[in-house]
Amino acid sequence: MRFFLSFLFVGSAIIVAATVVMLVVLLMNTKGRRSLVLALRSLRLHKVRAALSVSGIIISTTALISSMAFSEGSMQEALDDIKRLGATNLIVRSVKPADEVSTQTRSFVARYGITQEDYDLFATIPTVVRMVPMRIFPKPVYSDKVYRKGGEFGNDMWNARIVATTPQYQDINKIELTAGRFLVDEDSTERGNVCVLGSNTAAKLFPYENPIDQTILIDKFSYTVIGVAAERQSSAGSGGSQAAEDFNSDVYIPLGTAEGRFGKTVFLRQSGSRSGEQVEYSQVTLTVSDNDEVRPTGEAIKTILDRHQRKDTELTVPLETLELAERAKDRFLMLVGLIALISLLVGGIGIMNIMLATVTERTREIGVRRALGAKRRDITMQFLIEAIVQTTVGALVGVCLALTIIFVVPWCAKLFDAKMPAQLHNLSIVLAMASAIGVGVLFGWYPAYRAAMLDPIEALRHE
Fold first, then answer.
1. Residue 317 located in a structural domain
2. Same-domain pairing of 29 and 158
3. Is residue 209 situated within a structural domain?
4. 3-state secondary structure at position 208
5. Are residues 82 and 322 in contact, defined by beta-carbon separation less than 8 angstroms?
6. pTM confidence score
7. What sign for the dihedral angle of Cα 16, 21, 27, 32?
8. Are 140 and 158 contacting, i.e. CB atoms less than 8 angstroms apart?
9. Once rounded to an integer, what is the mean pLDDT over residues 333-349?
10. Sequence-distant (≥ 6) Cβ neighbours of residue 242 within 8 angstroms
11. Are residue 151 and residue 200 in the same domain, yes or no?
12. Following DSSP, what letter does each residue of 226-260 receive, concatenated?
């Protein structure tokens, strides 16, 4: 697919370059300049007809470039979500099995997911250079000031996602801070009561003051805020097993602190019911030494996970997901481009129709030129140049109009809190210009040939 797109780009660039060279040769040659001037003069004398004939080319070129730009922008956003996971990372998640619903009614506590034994076996894989364990669970979070003043939490309670992890989490997920610091190794070994707040959590609990050094409550345990994460876009959940994540509602605490405060079992309250889950690790992100080792390492991890009697884990390989998404993007762009090229051909048919009518209308003029010594190739060149000039001018206008749409529409969308990402695709511009020139040659040749083949005597008799 990549080779085909590269071939298409190079071929289109050659066509455009050849057209520029041909134009230079025409301008250097006296007869060529005369033919070009006659073609432009004819178009200037019939402005409305010329405008109508190129309108199809303008619309088609605009549609080709703008549709590919908006498609590229939308799909690139999904690709960026996958790239944030890291091409050399492997993500293992704990997944609650379907049969756990009936089991939970009997045992009250659901036990599933990645175990400490799994984690220790992961560490024995020689190609794994880093492991970031996480325990993730929802918990209501309160500002300590609200708790002490009101006694009842009211509207200041925030349903956060508690993420117990290690300092490497910041590097893995590209977490940026607006204030304070992230977790360090000492926080976990000393089981410190410290936390880092996501942007939404900080804004909700401390809307009018600096959250740093303030205190929040999780299950009535106090945690000192040491950092605030910058706002970031939620992941789109693209990819088969990649779950969407809202980092802005997170509260990050040391993994050692979570083990001391919550133990192995976390109790959840939902709609008046109370249930427990025993998940030793919600997720483990493993970094592999090299891209070539990603798939073999993935197979080794699958072997370890296959020891589970139930399917309560899943493995995500961002590299494979990224490659699949990129191939899907290329196929989609080709489909969009093909549809736009078909509309260019329709525009070319319109130009051929107008050119054939022009040949009939100018039959006497052709006869006069032939009688005065013009050769058939001169007549062919004049009408062919007219067709190419029309399609080229239409393509240039379409490119300008498409660029305006690409840069103005996303800006206008932001004014209405909407999002329309667009990313200019260089191939679309070159392809549009080359296709327009090709359409001019293809659909201008027959009318030019027909004009050149007219009998001079019969042409002079034409009224």
1. no
2. no
3. yes
4. coil
5. yes
6. 0.58
7. negative
8. yes
9. 75
10. 81, 82, 85, 91, 235, 316, 318, 321
11. yes
12. EEEEPP-PPP---STT-----GGGEEEEEHHHHHH
What integer pLDDT is reported at residue 1 of this predicted model? Answer: 55
253 has which bridge partners?
164
Same domain? 396 vs 339: yes
Asked whether residue 267 falls in the same domain as residue 368, the answer is no
Pair 133, 273 in one domain: yes
211/431: higher pLDDT: 211
Q: How far apart are CA 215 and CA 206, in angstroms?
A: 10
Please check whether residue 197 lies inside any domain of the structure.
yes
CA 261 to CA 193: how far, in whole Å? 10
Q: Can you tell me the distance from the alpha carbon of 161 to that of 159, in angstroms, rounded to the nearest whole number?
A: 7
Residue 163 has pLDDT above 80, yes or no: yes
Give residue 8's pLDDT: 59
CA contacts within 13 A on the Cβ side of 392: 16
In a shared domain, residues 103 and 41: no
Q: How many CB atoms lie within 10 A of CB 185?
A: 12
Number of domains comprising the chain: 2
Residue type, 42: S
CA pair distance 126, 289, nearest whole angstrom: 9
Total length of the chain:
463
Check residues 260 and 245 and name the one with the higher pLDDT: 260
Range of the domain at 50: 2-83+324-461
Same domain, 203 and 263: yes
